[in-house]
Amino acid sequence: DKILRFTMFSSVRVASDGVEDKYSVILPTYNERGNLPVIIWLLAKTFKEHDLDWEVIIVDDASPDGTQDVARQLATVYGSERIVLKPRSGKLGLGTAYVHGLKFVTGNFVIIMDADFSHHPKFIPEFIRLQKNNNYDIVTGTRYAGNGGVYGWNLKRKIISRGANFLASTLLRPGVTDLTGSFRLYKKEVLEKIITVVISKGYVFQMEMMVRARQFGYTIGEVPITFVDRVYGESKMGASEIVQFAKGVWQL
Fold this sequence. Notes:
Blueprint: H1 2-10, E1 22-29, H2 36-49, E2 53-60, H3 67-78, E3 83-85, H4 94-102, E4 109-112, H5 124-134, E5 138-142, E6 149-151, H6 155-172, E7 184-187, H7 188-195, H8 204-215, E8 220-224, E9 226-228, H9 239-251
Parallel strand pairs: 1-2, 1-4, 2-3, 5-8, 6-9
Antiparallel strand pairs: 4-7, 5-7
Protein name: 12484_t:CDS:1
Organism: Dentiscutata heterogama
């Protein structure tokens, strides 16, 4: 199994310029004290098993639950070159969290994901494999194609999510089945360019990222993923985000 795994990845670890690829995870957090140690352990395990260079940039928005203390402890366990804490003064929005995290990225690929186990690191090797095989600029996880799916949502929330994606896809035609997902792999320079023109905040941000990517002519691949509703803590999705999404679709 180890020989097979090495064979699969040894040919895709090196960039075209001969420099070894490095994968930087930007992990926005707010009150994720209980989740952070486990998600970091899963990320470290995944990258180590596939012999990949990595780092995690933790962008914490002044969590009152001690998330930053946990992040500092994790840096002593895994190394300060692997776990990089870059906090902010308060809750300033998802899009600006990525802008902030990008300032400290040292890898040539950037992975964005949630810290609450909604996105399992086990899908990252498939993201990387698809990107390398097709030289995609972006690979995004999709809940609505192939064997992708959602677990832990009631019927109402599933209908809202499906409807929102259908509406946005019909009106905007970005050629992506899951516009609102936030589990993605970007070439660093691609993310840097797109993020400079995105004006949306909150949950609309992810949708606009895909729309702008298509406008720039970037190539996008999709990997079916299983999305699991957050295990610990409360969902940050509310009625105001739904209204914000509808307004965002109209503006775009």
